[in-house]
Amino acid sequence: MATVAEITKEAIVRYYWTDGLTIAQIAEEYDVTPAAIWGRMKRWKIPRRTSGPLGRGKLDAEQVKVIRKRLAKGESCGKIAEDYPVSRQTISLIKQGIIWAHV
Q: What is the b/e burial string over 8-27, where b = at least 16 CB atoms within 10 angstroms of the residue's CB?
């Protein structure tokens, strides 16, 4: 079991966004309370899932790669979001590397 000091932003993002674990499941993994995980998520500005099954499933890895290429060419988050079933904010989170960082 990991300790509370070993919890990293990258690990929480991976567990929560990529693996789809709940805050309670992540807390169990680290043997801490869900409040400890939620507090770190707030501090590190990791957004919570808000829609869909576990908030996932609207994009796949290939779509994210295309989105990243469009962002690199300077296309706006809003314009890109019009082509996918996600919000401008989701595209912005991809751009910032907060979600889909593993792709």
A: eeeebbebbbeeebebeebb
Angle at 32 between CA 28 and CA 33, to 5 degrees: 90
Domain spans in the chain, listed from the N-terminal domain onward:
4-53, 58-96
Reported as a single tens digit per residue, the pLDDT across 44-57 is 998 887 644 444 56
CA distance 98 to 13: 7
- Give the DSSP per-residue string, 30-88: HTS-HHHHHHHHHHTTPPPP-SSGGG--S--HHHHHHHHHHHHTT--HHHHHTTTTS-H
Please give the Cα distance from 69 to 21 (Å, whole number).
28
More confident residue, 50 or 68: 68
